[in-house]
Amino acid sequence: MTTHTIIYTEVDEAPALATYSLLPILQAYTAMSGVTIEKKDISLAGRIIAAFPERLKPEQCQSDDLTELGQLCLLPHTNIIKLPNISASIPQLKDAITELQGQGYDIPDYPDDTISEADKEVQARYSKVLGSAVNPVLREGNSDRRAPAAVKRFGQKNPHRLMKPWPSDSKSRVAHMDNGDFYGSEKSMTFDKDCRVRIEFAGADGQTQVLKKELPLLAGEVVDTAVMNVAKLRAFFATEMAAAKKEGLLFSLHLKATMMKISDPIMFGHCVSVYYEDALTRHAEVMKGLGINVNNGFADIEARLEKLPEAQKEAIKSDITACYGKNCRLAMVDSRHGITNLHVPNNIIVDASMPVFIRDGGRMWGTDDELHDTIAAIPDRCYATIYQEVVKDCQKNGAFDPATMGSVANVGLMAQKAEEYGSHDKTFVAPGQGSIRLVSEDGNVLLEQAVETGDIFRCCQTKDEPIKDWVKLAVNRAREAGTPAIFWLDEKRAHDRELMAKVEKYLSEQDTTGLDIRIMGLVEAMGFSLERIRKGEDTISVTGNVLRDYLTDLFPILEIGTSAKMLSIVPLMNGGGLFETGAGGSAPKHVEQFLREGHLRWDSLGEFCALVPSFEHIYKTFGNEKARLIAKTLDQAIGKFLEKGKSPSRKVGELDTRGSHFYLALYWAESLAAQTEDSELAGRFAGVAKDLLENEGKIVAELKAAQGSPMDIGGYFHPDKEKTAAAMRPSATLNAIVDAI
Ligand SMILES: NC(=O)C1=CN([C@@H]2O[C@H](COP(=O)(O)OP(=O)(O)OC[C@H]3O[C@@H](n4cnc5c(N)ncnc54)[C@H](OP(=O)(O)O)[C@@H]3O)[C@@H](O)[C@H]2O)C=CC1
Ligand SMILES: O=C(O)CCC(=O)C(=O)O
Ligand SMILES: [Mg+2]
């Protein structure tokens, strides 16, 4: 029998733990269909190990699976199930390095300063591991995300209870800059032929410095540049902190330091240094000596102060305490442990943090472990305004009702590192006063931005083929769904104006008869979608890469309580399929709970849903009929799983991730046994279904018995495989049935 391969990604944290329980079931159920499910390691630890082969013992070495997957994504038959992985901030990267070193891996420290050539080489290798280093490599296609019909139906019938009311006198708001931001400075152009450009800094003193030697561009490519003026950014933070203090609101900051790994940690650092300015200025010399980098958050300050003699440390700490007294109150991430919004750059990731702010009635947690009205600072106007529109709507009309609200699906322009999310290698801190500019090979200045020392310059690329593909995908989705599809484009943004022209052109080449497709500004599009949501009507948002990310967390978190249940398909432009599991992250909080009390509440519904189109893709590509049946029966099993309420509970002692996998296996076996199209599969799974059902009580009891005490899996970023497998497969009865298939 020919075998067809699905690649299943090994990741980090909660979804990685869940994989230990789910993957053996998947492999057993698909083996008879000629589908093999193969693992590839894209975990943070795996990627670090793969970056330093020459320093490791042969048995410690790992292949560079990410690079291999990146190449596979360009081939027509590739089929990948992509689970969420850690996009590491520097503090997370350092923690992972320390853990690996403790396990005997001779991995170098992350160099804070790059003084020697050797430091530079190490940092260059780590820069490929840092931040969102995985998704942009694999996403060789645009994105199609929506709540599967069964999930939405279930969500309306069983509305989640996470939505909190908005106080009638809510004073919360989104704060953004009015000028000096990326939005205000953006310049954009479309190239009419293939060419190469360079990016250079031209100092006011007449010196020039090449920042990027060569940037190859394709005909039809849209390129933009923009600058964040840091003096204005700091003034904005100071103003909003003072306003929060005056109005009695909490202050919070929402950025994407993981995806925007160069620009956003710097913006985060400015916020930290404005808040703690008095203490940091007074002790500037000591802080410098300790190597403190505010971009890594208050946690870095706190940790490094520990190196000081007691008296000196206490003096600085007392000045820090004075900052809390003088300044506004900060929103807390973990009020019980005194962790604020400014602790580490990866704690508040805007795509997930703003929906929770809205779900919680426009409030965040204070030090008193209560919810309070809050100023949500999102400095750049490119996207901040959409959230203020939601805030305004909820202040006027109250919280949304998950039982009746409509749905917003998304078609997102993402392929080939589109827009801001591909800008890291073209983001620079201005080395002085002058300008940063894009220069053609023959020396013509194409786009130029005035900068002051420390300003953040950013250049983004959006290729033509992905835009064409995105428009086509939007038209197809609009036709399939029969609902309005709105292109969210802001005519005040230079980049969006270039895109609008292309959208209009490519739409005119498609058959759009009978479809309601419109282009709207962001705030208008949000208002339009919210109005429909409140009437229970569905809308498709067709957006660029950043809004794709933001909206596919926002709407699902409001509608169904989480974005983990989204169907997230990336039709690869060369014919393959990348099936992302959900739209959320790797849920670090769930791992904490698992380690503390042996209960994992990761919901694998995202994985289940992604597998259906993945099997269908095998059928469509290779005509594998058994794969078609595997998909059909899995879909039926998911329906029953939802109907019977077998998702993991949040409480220890109740059904957790492992138990939910058992029920999926049971319902899937029942569906396979009941179908009449393939007697071989039916015959094989009739016995499995019978065994699982007969042993239901025993299996559930065995799984429950494994809960209630702390777990030792030998690591956080790089757990011990055997220990983790044992922890995640604690039912001998279930294992025996699955392993015998
Ligand atoms: N595609 C990718 O690879 C992505 C990766 N990330 C990475 O994930 C990490 C964590 O990100 P963070 O922003 O904290 O977001 P997470 O989505 O991991 O967590 C936010 C909350 O969402 C809920 N949640 C998310 N997924 C599930 C699930 N499958 N089952 C049940 N509940 C779920 C949980 O809520 P509750 O606690 O209330 O149960 C969780 O605490 C970061 O390192 C980030 O870089 C983030 C987004 C996408
Ligand atoms: O890659 C990442 O860091 C996050 C991706 C993400 O949030 C998304 O695509 O929704
Ligand atoms: Mg996201």
From TrEMBL:
Catalysed transformations (reactions): D-threo-isocitrate + NADP(+) = 2-oxoglutarate + CO2 + NADPH
Positions annotated to bind D-threo-isocitrate: 145, 548
SUPFAM superfamilies: Isocitrate/Isopropylmalate dehydrogenase-like
GO molecular function (one): metal ion binding
Enzyme class, spelled out: oxidoreductase
Keywords (A to Z) from UniProt: Glyoxylate bypass, Magnesium, Metal-binding, NADP, Oxidoreductase, Tricarboxylic acid cycle
EC number: 1.1.1.42
Positions contributing to NADP(+) binding: 82-87, 135, 585-586, 590, 601-603, 650
Binding, substrate: 132-139
Site residues (Critical for catalysis), renumbered to this chain: 256, 421
Cofactor(s), by name: Mg(2+); Mn(2+)
Cofactor comment text: Binds 1 Mg(2+) or Mn(2+) ion per subunit.
Residues noted as binding Mg(2+) in the record, renumbered to the chain: 351, 549, 553
Single biological process term from Gene Ontology: tricarboxylic acid cycle
Superkingdom of this protein's organism: Bacteria
Family membership: Belongs to the monomeric-type IDH family.
Name under which the protein is recorded: Isocitrate dehydrogenase [NADP]
